[in-house]
Specification:
With 566 residues, the chain is an alpha/beta fold.
Length: 566
């Protein structure tokens, strides 16, 4: 097994060097003026200030290159190995001892720079960073700047089908492939787009009126963040922000009640340990841009822009479903993104209606219309059509295989190679994911709950290697960089929970059970994907939510007008 940061140190050194060179150029351009105005001491002080400024300017790129995937609450520990003032969440994790990962380093001009978090403000997800430079002569300079520290709870894995293959799929045996909805009963209008019992309420509260707020405490908030939507006791809420008295033992948030897709008749007295359901992809409300209603930015007779809490769980061409009043309606995604680039809570989906792709005629649904969109409510869950199998090529054979919903052959939305990989991993390239992975030469005996990369070191492309797995067991993301022959089942009586991604060809002749999905590029040998035996794949959004946390990387952004000297 090999660590995931190969090459990052060199990149960081080059990056910091560029920043310092820029600082030196600035120093030279000002030296003449300083010589006329002041002493050599002033010149050294100015040089020290530029070095300290380099520490501030390089901080966000260093974090990006380090690809920190831990909790934002532990960000100070990651940087310096100790808690910052204002962070009262408890001791640092044992995996983050002093002196931390990103504190002191030397610049090419001989100065040393030490950066550390000196202020931590959990309710606003911001920190104060202090950068101290020390010259070779002992002169020091201290600068401060505030940064936002944001990390999505997970990276959504946008997977087209329970079994997705770029080349042809040849079915045999008795495979069972269940997408979404995975039953012949179709969609549940009350549970559409909802993951039930993600956590529980840690203290009772009274449900306020729509538009009002309340403070609620959760037993866990691993998959919650500002902008998330939840359902509690049948009532719908948006998480506004962490409460000022938030702590690791009392995870308190300010919740705003929103209308949701229906009116609950349950008690407004929420008791301790009540289940908290996540509306994973919810219709959101905002005043950004042109607005038809708070949730619809614009619309015409055949298209609209609907504001959503998170657009990354969808791809162009998806058929989606949502509830209006008491009925279920469909539309087709034509574009997605953020109304404010870089702001993760300003997502949108551009849709057209009626949908024409596979899934548009799902039993129990009708096409949405422009008039109906006026009644779409904030907090409404959105789901997507996920066939049992889908291929850019043909789907042949069948044997006695079962697929729900029905297979989608010649799907032009399924691309090959890097495009399919980026579609699956929410825009991340193979190198991006490799850098977040633990690498193995051969498939591990048990897949660990992490990103497991099987293939040669420092190679991100598909290769000609062939691998075999007789017992597919464990939980996590398993990426095979060559061909895979899957035989047998988990001999220990379990199954595999997660995502199996194969860059080469995939052949199954066993009885493996996958709770999640299988994606196949099929770019090494074009003989296609063979799904024989009695393989079972159960597509599961909850699995992708939980496994996607291994791919969620912290974003650090300097805040304007906060640079200052100490």
């Amino acid at each position: 097994m090999q660590n995931k940061t190969a090459g990052s140190s060199l990149i960081i050194v080059m990056l910091v060097s560029v920043i310092v060179i820029g600082s030196v150029v600035a120093l030279i351009s000002n030296t003449a003026g300083l010589a006329r105005k002041g002493s050599g001491y002033e010149r050294m002080a100015y040089s020290s200030m530029l070095s300290a400024d380099a520490g501030l300017k390089s901080f966000a790129p260093r974090i990006q290159l380090a690809r920190y995937t831990g909790r934002t609450e532990d960000f100070d520990c990651y940087v310096q190995g100790t808690r910052a003032p204002g962070n009262n969440i408890g001791a640092c994790p044992l995996s983050m001892p002093a002196p931390g990962r990103l504190t002191a380093y030397a610049l090419p001009n001989g100065d040393t720079v030490d950066v550390r978090v000196v202020g931590f403000y959990s309710s606003s997800n911001t920190i104060t960073l202090q950068s101290t430079s020390t010259s070779t002569s002992g002169n020091t300079k201290v600068l401060l700047q505030d940064f936002s520290v944001l990390k999505p709870p997970t990276t959504n894995l946008s997977i087209p089908a329970a079994l997705t293959s770029f080349p042809n799929i040849d079915f045999g045996g008795n495979s069972k492939l269940y997408g979404a909805p995975g039953t012949s009963a179709g969609l549940s209008s009350t549970e559409n787009g909802i993951l039930t019992t993600l956590t529980n309420v840690g203290a009772g509260f009274t449900v306020p009126a729509v538009g009002s707020t309340v403070t609620a405490q959760f037993n866990s908030d691993s998959y919650l963040t500002a902008g998330s939507y939840v359902r509690i006791n049948g009532y719908f809420f948006r998480l506004q922000e962490r409460a000022s008295n938030y702590s690791d033992t009392a995870r308190r948030y300010i919740l705003k009640r929103v209308p949701g897709p229906y009116t609950s008749t349950s008690s407004t007295n929420v008791t301790n340990n009540t289940a908290v359901d996540l509306v994973q992809f919810a219709v959101r409300s905002s005043a950004e841009g042109t607005t038809v209603t708070p949730v619809v930015a614009f619309k015409d007779a055949v298209s609209a822009r609907v504001r959503v809490s998170d657009p990354t769980g969808f791809y162009v061409g998806d058929v989606i479903y949502f509830r209006i009043n008491s009925l279920m309606y469909s539309a087709q995604v034509t574009a997605l993104g953020y109304e404010s680039p870089g702001n993760l809570i300003t997502g949108y989906l551009d849709i057209r209606y009626p949908a024409t792709a596979v899934g548009s005629g799902l039993t129990g649904t009708s096409s949405v219309t422009a008039a109906l969109l006026d009644s779409l409510q904030e907090g409404t869950g959105i789901s997507r059509y996920v066939p049992g199998a889908s291929s850019a090529g043909g789907i042949t054979g069948g044997g006695s295989s079962t697929m729900l919903p029905s297979a989608a052959a010649f799907n032009t939305n399924i691309k090959g190679g890097e495009q399919l990989f980026m579609q699956t991993f929410s825009g991340k390239t193979k190198q991006n994911v490799y850098d977040l992975s633990q690498r193995y030469d051969l498939p591990p005996a048990t897949v660990l709950d992490q990103v497991n990369w099987v293939g040669p070191a420092n190679q991100f492309a598909t290769n000609n290697n062939s691998y075999s797995i007789n017992d597919l067991c464990g939980t996590g993301i398993l990426i095979i960089t060559g061909n895979l022959n899957l035989n047998g089942t988990c001999a220990r009586g379990g199954n595999f929970t997660g995502l199996l991604y194969v860059m080469g060809d995939f052949r199954n002749q066993g009885n493996a059970i996958v709770n999640g999905a299988v994606v196949v590029e099929g770019q090494v040998i074009t003989s296609g994907t063979s799904a024989g035996g009695t393989m079972t794949i159960n597509y599961d959004n909850r699995v992708f939510l939980e496994r996607g946390r291994h791919l969620a990387v912290t974003r650090v952004t300097p805040l304007k007008a906060t640079w200052r000297q100490k």
